[in-house]
Amino acid sequence: MTLSKKLPLALTATRAILGPVVLLLAILWPDPIAFGLCLTIAFLSDIFDGIIARRLNIATEGLRRLDSIADSIFYIGAAGAAWILHPQAILDRIYPILILLALEILRYIIDYYKYRRETSYHMWSSKLWGIFLFIGFMSLLAFNDQGIFVTLFIYIGIVADIEGLAISLTLKKWTHDVPTIFHALRLRAAQRNEKNIGY
User: Fold this and answer.
1) Which of 54, 57, 115, 193 is the most buried (most CB within 10 A)?
2) Are 80 and 174 found together in one domain?
3) Are residues 93 and 68 in the same domain?
4) Which residues have C-beta within 8 Å of that of residue 171, sequence separation ≥ 6?
5) Together in a domain, 38 and 74
6) Smallest Cα–Cα separation from 54: which of 162, 176, 146, 141?
7) Which secondary structure element, helix H or strand E, spans residue 42, and what is its range?
8) Number of domains the chain is built from
9) Contacts of 46 (CB under 8 A, 6+ apart)
10) CA-to-CA distance for 52 and 58, rounded, in angstroms?
């Protein structure tokens, strides 16, 4: 694999590494500029790893799965940092956060039970959630603002998880890159038609 083709994987790996870095920053050196830099690098890597992979025609199933895993690692680290530095912001929103966590766990349980692996739908709602995760954590960690953007990313996450759960319950077999539940319904209908033609 050429150096250019390794770039998407390097960007994805960078985002995963930054998760523990953000957590360590919260413990050892909670500097707003450092948080802002980490969040910005992670956000840009999330945008450009997929763009570059598609341009190079190497957007494989494995790379898409790693992208989702890297997202989870980074934002778990950011959530840990938020708990260390701003526990009241978490406690003030504890019930919607618990709903979000329950949906995340339920999705993983259902996905592993049904497909024996995590899903990688890259839904439009998840992309919107990613934008608001960035804005919300930037607001909290870099600007010490516990306002509306923190609340918004929690509720957008709940909507995205509900849609992801609906897609998993709709699709018969594991499929990556399913933008919306409507695409999932069309895929299921197409798969049913293929099955009928096979008979």
Assistant:
1) 115
2) no
3) no
4) 178, 184, 187, 188
5) yes
6) 176
7) helix 32-55
8) 2
9) 15, 67, 70, 71, 130
10) 9
Residue 48: predicted pLDDT: 93
pTM, two decimal places: 0.89
pLDDT of residue 4: 64
- Residues 6-39 as b/e (b if ≥16 CB within 10 A, e otherwise) read ebbbebbebbbebbebbbebbeeeeeeebbeebb
101 and 113 part of one domain:
yes
Q: Under a CB-based contact definition with an 8 Å cutoff, are residues 74 and 43 in contact? A: no
For the chain (199 residues), the mean pLDDT of every run of 10, in chain order, is 75 96 98 98 94 85 86 96 97 97 96 90 94 97 96 97 97 92 94 65
Q: Domain range spanning residue 92?
A: 86-199
Find where tokens 């509306």 sit.
Answer: 148
Please say which residue of 64, 85, 106 terminates a domain.
85
What's the sign of the alpha-carbon dihedral 79, 167, 159, 59? positive
